[in-house]
Write a structure and sequence with these properties.
This protein has two domains: about 200 residues, Quinone Oxidoreductase, Chain A, domain 1 (Alpha-Beta Complex); about 130 residues, NAD(P)-binding Rossmann-like Domain (Rossmann fold, 3-Layer(aba) Sandwich). About 25% of the residues lie in helices and about 25% in strands. Strands 3, 4, 5, 8, 9, 16 and 17 form a seven-stranded mixed beta sheet that branches. β11, α5 and β12 form a beta-alpha-beta unit. It starts with a strand and ends with a helix. The radius of gyration is 20 Å and the shape is globular. α3 packs across α4 and α3 packs across α9. With about 375 residues, it is an alpha/beta fold.
């Protein structure tokens, strides 16, 4: 067994604190990874606070992980010691169901669904009470090392800075996957609702695919921020501006991480176009089906992305020299960082330098 140090929450109302636990050594097709950077996702906050009513405590968050391989199991073929690699939201799936056979591990149809990088299986117990993974909990990247099956380990292109690559493993693929699925292409008009960690990344990915991008925001300050990044933005409260672009978009992506009204944006879609929600996992406000039916518009959902798509978006970002706007923090400041994320005070993604944890371990 390997002694590991991380930061964990032990209750929905507790702060993240130093936590020591153990991981099994790499065997078979597994690799051991020294964690260098870990992004801070809004999902981490939802999970720590049990806002989805499924948190398993203690909770060690982190699913935007970049590190170096330090040891490989005897059957590993795709990675070697010294490789710069990434781990996203998943570390296993059944590999046998129709979804997994199609390469969509993120829609695994096994009794437990896929195994998350932290907080264990998506469905801890099936209808008959079995757990195919044999684990009720998993601990994520707010820790000094991981052990992961090689099939769920991504290669970080050398053109990407490791700290910039980290949020691409969740924010990047979560926005890329629906664009790929619904066929966003050069010349399309894409609307991105919300301009936070997901939204600004979605805009960059869509532009890399050749689309013309418009951002929608509720705050006037973000109009200027969008302009600095080279994007046009519209204030949602500006009825004249909103009305002038009704029916113009081939695809829209909502990245707002909480319940919100989609109806004003359904009107923005062309005939046969799709609005996909990636930011919120709770019930949404009701939709006006007349606005949908008369132009055969659709509202859909999408969940993270599969392993192949994650590698694709990493390579796309490297090719186009794009990545999230980040701010590096120490892990000792994680609780304050959570408050700033919730208050919208971060522009746009926090990334933890895990050297700060190793310094604390050495004290």
């Amino acid at each position: 067994m390997i002694k590991v140090t991380g930061y964990a929450a032990k209750h929905s109302y507790s702060r993240l604190k130093k936590y020591e636990f153990e991981r099994e050594e790499a065997k078979g097709h597994e690799v051991e990874i020294d964690v260098l950077y870990c992004g801070v996702c809004h999902s981490d906050i939802h999970q720590v606070k049990n806002e989805w009513s499924n948190t398993v405590y203690p909770c060690v968050p982190g699913h935007e992980i970049v590190g170096r391989v330090t040891r490989v199991g005897p059957a590993v073929r795709n990675h070697q010691v010294g490789d710069l690699v990434g781990v996203g939201c998943m570390i296993d799936s059944c590999g046998k169901c129709e979804a997994c056979q199609h390469g969509d591990q993120n829609y695994c149809m096994s009794p437990n669904s896929w195994l998350a990088t932290y907080n264990g299986p998506m469905q801890p117990k099936s209808k008959v009470g079995e757990n195919i993974y044999g684990r009720d909990n998993t601990f994520g990247g707010y820790s000094n090392m991981l052990v992961v099956k090689e099939d769920f380990v991504l290669k970080i292109p050398p053109q990407l800075k490791p700290e910039v690559a980290a949020p691409i493993l969740c924010a990047g693929v979560t926005t890329y996957s629906p664009m790929k699925h619904w066929g966003v292409k050069a010349g399309d008009k894409v609307g991105v609702i919300g301009m936070g960690g997901l939204g600004h990344m979605a805009a960059k990915v869509a532009r890399a695919l050749g689309a013309e991008v418009t951002l929608f925001t509720t705050t006037r300050e973000k109009i200027d921020e969008a302009a600095k990044l080279g994007f046009k933005a519209v204030l949602e409260s500006d009825k004249a501006a909103m009305g002038a672009i009704e029916g113009e978009f081939d695809f829209m992506l909502s990245t707002i991480p909480e319940k919100h009204d989609l109806n004003p944006f359904v009107n923005m879609l062309k005939r046969n176009a799709v609005l996909t929600v990636v930011g919120a996992l709770e019930p949404m406000a009701g939709l006006d089906n007349m606005q949908m039916a008369f132009k055969r518009r659709s509202v859909a959902g999408s969940l993270i992305g599969n392993i192949a798509e994650t590698q694709e978006v990493l390579d796309l970002c490297a090719q186009h020299d794009i990545g999230p706007e980040i701010e590096i923090i120490r892990i000792q400041d994680i609780n304050d960082a959570y408050k700033k994320v919730e208050n919208g005070d971060v522009r746009f993604r926090y990334v933890i330098d895990m050297a700060s944890l190793k310094e604390e371990m050495a004290e």
